[in-house]
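Sequence design from tokenized structure. All designs in this work follow the same two-part layout: the structure record, then the generated sequence. An example of the structure record is given first.
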């Protein structure tokens, strides 16, 4: 039996084949073109996948052909194994080798660079939806254990603090996330939406998967950007005047610090922001400059999407009293904060956050997180930082996110990242990496002076390195492993 998510994708692709579906690099592709290419990929998967629910590796890039290939696998009931080709050739090559996939898909360049020929793997190179895929079929039988029934996407986490791990995003989870709590009873759209969305989240990240599938579920055309870049992004906003846009904190700060005006963002009624912490000061500064409320949220790959967030109604009523919160639990989701013994704490008390995501259904167990949080009497949630990233400096707790937010409140600072560094006397000390705005000239000692009235003495970084760009993951979060390695190299050289 076809899953409701697969059926919804197929129904929307067939709704009006001649209508415009995806705008990319100034050109439009129709629903029919996307659907035809998806069908080609689906046929290849059925022929070479080796099982009814094959794992299909896709080296995902934000391109219409990759969107179509992704949808083609889901329509056939397979599992998309997300492979990030931006992690470096050696790591990507090793990842592919370890996965032992029956089918792998990528651009001709990616395939030639990181795919080692294997007799058990069919390799499919895709360039454009107007060109036929180039197929090198396997010469031997499929790999053992290649089937993963019920899993739509085997997704890589962002890997900000350690090696990325793979998480099952099931068909049920994604269907509940983009269709509704009872996807099988939700009738498909009978006509296409008129508004055009903008997708700038990477397809290799859960945010990109969610936004693409949401557009499909709603039958909404969208602009697909290869990445967030201020020029193409604002051009799309000016052209299509979307009512809502999504910006990760790093992108939001770029918009905030630009010369754009409210007129440039005409039509935008709300900005949603997630994947990483956003300071209340930045949210307020954005609203003051553009007159647009910023609706922050809380999500994770493991949850299959968001579990808490602000609504426009809550923002209008509560923001000034609850600023800095990530909002309240989404419909169907449950959140609680527990103490060291695992028992729920009283409202307002700090502890570890546990979640029951609506995407997993009513019968799921509490999922433990490593996030420190508090929830007040009205159900508003504050994320206070990661318990596993807390810096203990001579017995004092330093929360990196609080130090980062203080640094980012300096007018010259575009972004910051704070980590702990071993210290013989104090155990750990905070150090920071800072990326300045274009044309800014702040020096480390000036930033340290700036922090004197904003942080306790023990919270102020003992070293601040100013760099051209902070290394980031595809989702826009600082890549803490790369930050640590680069900081170690900089500080050793001093």
């Amino acid at each position: 039996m076809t899953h409701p998510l697969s059926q919804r994708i197929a129904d929307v692709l067939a709704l009006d084949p001649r209508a415009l579906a995806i705008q990319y690099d100034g050109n439009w592709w129709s629903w029919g073109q996307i659907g035809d290419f998806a069908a080609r990929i689906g046929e290849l998967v059925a022929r070479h996948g080796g099982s009814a629910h094959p794992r299909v590796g896709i080296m995902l890039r934000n391109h219409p052909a990759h969107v179509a290939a992704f949808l083609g696998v889901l329509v056939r009931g397979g599992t998309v194994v997300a492979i990030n080709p931006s992690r470096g050739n050696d790591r990507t090559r090793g990842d592919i080798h370890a996965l032992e996939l029956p089918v792998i898909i990528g651009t001709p360049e990616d395939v030639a660079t990181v795919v080692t020929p294997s007799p058990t793997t069919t390799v499919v190179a895709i360039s454009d939806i107007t060109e036929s895929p180039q197929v090198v079929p396997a010469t031997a039988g499929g790999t053992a254990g290649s089937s993963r029934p019920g899993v739509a996407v085997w997704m890589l986490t962002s890997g900000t603090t350690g090696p990325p791990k793979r998480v099952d995003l099931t068909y049920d989870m994604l269907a509940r996330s983009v269709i509704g709590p009872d996807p099988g009873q939700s009738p498909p759209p009978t006509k296409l939406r008129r508004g055009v969305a903008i997708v700038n989240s990477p397809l290799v990240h859960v945010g990109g998967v969610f936004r693409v599938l949401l557009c499909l579920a709603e039958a909404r055309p969208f602009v697909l950007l290869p990445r967030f870049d201020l020029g193409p992004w604002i051009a799309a906003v000016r052209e299509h005047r979307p009512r809502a846009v999504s910006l990760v904190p790093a992108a939001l700060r770029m918009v905030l610090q630009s010369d754009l005006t409210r007129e440039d963002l005409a039509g935008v009624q709300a900005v949603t922001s997630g994947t990483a912490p956003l300071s209340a000061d930045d949210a307020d500064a954005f609203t003051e400059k553009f007159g647009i409320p910023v609706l922050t949220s809380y999500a994770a790959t493991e949850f299959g999407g968001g579990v808490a967030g602000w609504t426009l109604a809550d923002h209008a009523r509560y923001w000034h009293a609850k600023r800095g919160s990530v909002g309240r639990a989404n419909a169907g989701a449950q959140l609680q904060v527990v103490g060291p013994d695992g028992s729920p704490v009283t409202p307002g008390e700090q502890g570890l956050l546990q979640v029951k995501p609506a995407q997993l259904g009513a019968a799921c167990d509490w999922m433990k997180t490593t996030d420190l949080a508090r929830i007040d009497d009205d159900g508003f949630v504050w994320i206070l930082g990661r318990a596993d990233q807390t810096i203990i400096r001579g017995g004092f707790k330093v929360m990196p996110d609080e130090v980062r937010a203080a640094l980012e409140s300096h007018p010259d600072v575009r972004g910051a990242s704070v980590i702990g560094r071993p210290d013989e006397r104090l155990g750990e000390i905070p150090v920071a990496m800072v990326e300045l705005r274009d044309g800014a000239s702040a020096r480390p000692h000036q930033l340290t002076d700036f922090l004197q009235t904003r942080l306790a003495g023990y919270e102020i970084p003992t070293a601040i390195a100013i760099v051209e760009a902070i290394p980031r993951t595809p989702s826009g979060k600082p890549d803490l492993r790369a930050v640590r390695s680069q900081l170690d190299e900089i500080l050793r050289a001093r």
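Residues 193 and 417 are 40 Å apart (CA to CA). We note this feature because it recurs in several other targets discussed in the main text.
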